[in-house]
UniProtKB/TrEMBL annotation:
SMART domains: IG, IGc2. The gene is LOC113064307. GO terms for molecular function: signaling receptor binding. It comes from the Eukaryota. It is found in: Membrane. GO terms for cellular component: neuron projection; plasma membrane; synapse. It is a single-pass membrane protein. Residues 326-348 are annotated as: Disordered. Residues 26-128, 132-227, 232-312 form the Ig-like domain. It comes from Carassius auratus. CDD domains: IgV_1_Necl-2. This is Cell adhesion molecule 1-like isoform X2. The lineage of its organism: Eukaryota, Metazoa, Chordata, Craniata, Vertebrata. It holds the Pfam family Ig_3. Coiled coil: none annotated.
């Protein structure tokens, strides 16, 4: 009998436990089935914010919207607050949607959605007002930079909320700057970024771009083109001759110099010696005719501008003149037949002597050469 009583008590206890669990589960289900939802909002100053209070499976409970000071903006579809910027967009059993036009910084804060259920529920919509920065200002420490020197460029973004982020690009390459953020009295932010780098001649004419990243704006940037001064670049071009240089030929060299600013002076010198006296120097051209080995050496073109001077060298090496081998010749002997004058005839003494000399010269006549 005692055993049966214990079994009955155990059964009753289990039933009570199940009943409690069922009640708790039903209560939780009731709350979840009327879940109140609201979303945070980011809106640019001057634009319109949409506040939505949504209920899943509402059981005719009343929805209302309060401002950050917990003043009622809308109770169902009625607006007690006398601020015409708030307008009803949608009202139903499952949603209260309200628009707030011409948003200002003073509208920022936590808005409360209330559901008069059992128990009452609240959901929160935080409005964040975004204030775009003013036009970025880019400045450089100097307008013209000499090659090899360090330059500093500053970019400033003022009056934004939240603080902007500044990035730098030089041509197609991103560079890392150093930034400082300052807060103003009206809860705005000013960001200043400094960029320092060493300038090379390849940077001349390259844009340095300050890019301002902010959630209220897109593609916000400004740029400055680099102007770089550099020493001349000097090259020597051989105009003539082509190929090896030999005695008796002529040499013509042109000095090509390019710099920023353009070279104001171009000179030709011979290293460790004087330029040949008959050499002709005309501007950037050097001409030496009738070369011989005594002209061998290093000829230097020196170009200079306000940044500095540079030079290029040409080494002259004159070779022996080409010698031509004579073509082979054949020697032939031709016998000439001639009748001597008639010396038996009477003649003046001078005529006889001339005839005698002519005969002797005929005997001594050399052989002719044919090529």
């Amino acid at each position: 009998m005692k055993q049966v009583s214990n079994m009955a008590n155990t059964s009753n206890g289990s039933l009570a436990t199940l009943l409690i669990l069922f009640t708790i589960s039903a209560a939780i289900h009731t709350v979840q089935s009327q879940n109140l939802i609201a979303d945070n909002i980011s809106v640019v100053e001057g634009e319109t914010a949409i506040i939505s209070c949504r209920v899943k499976n509402n059981d005719d409970s009343v929805i209302q919207l309060l401002n950050p000071n917990r003043q009622t903006i809308y109770f169902r579809d009625v607006r007690p607050l006398k601020d015409a910027r708030f307008q009803l967009v949608n009202f139903s059993d499952n949603e209260l949607r309200v628009s707030l036009s011409n948003v200002s910084l003073s509208d920022e804060g936590r808005y409360v959605c209330q559901l008069y259920s059992d128990p009452p529920q609240e959901a929160y919509a935080d409005i964040t007002v975004l204030i775009p920065p003013g036009n970025p200002i880019i400045e450089s420490r100097e307008d013209i930079v000499r090659e090899g020197n360090e330059t500093e460029i500053t970019c400033t973004s003022m009056g934004s909320k939240p603080a902007a982020k500044i990035r730098w690009m030089k041509g197609n390459k991103e560079l890392l700057g150093k930034s400082k953020v300052e807060t103003t009295y009206d809860r705005m932010f000013t960001v200043t970024s400094w960029l320092r780098f060493t300038v090379m001649r390849e940077d001349d004419g390259v844009p340095v771009v300050c890019i301002v990243d902010h959630p209220a704006v897109k593609d916000f940037q400004t740029q400055k083109y680099l102007e770089v001064q550099y020493k001349p670049e000097v090259t020597i071009k051989v105009e003539l001759p082509q190929g090896l240089i030999r005695e008796g030929e002529s040499l013509e060299l042109t000095c090509q110099a390019k710099g920023k600013p353009q070279p104001h002076q171009v000179n030709w010198v011979k290293v460790d010696d004087d330029v040949p006296s008959h050499a002709v120097i005309s501007g950037s051209d050097l001409y030496i005719g009738n070369l011989n080995k005594s002209y061998n050496g290093t000829y230097r073109c020196v170009a200079s501008n306000s940044v500095g001077e540079t030079y290029a060298d040409y080494i002259l090496y004159v070779r022996d003149a080409l010698t031509t081998t004579p073509k082979p010749t054949t020697t032939t002997t031709t016998t000439a037949t001639t009748s001597p004058p008639d010396i038996t005839q009477d003649a003046a003494p001078s005529t006889e002597a001339a005839a005698h000399g002519w005969y002797l010269s005929l005997l001594l006549l050399p052989a002719q050469h044919a090529s």
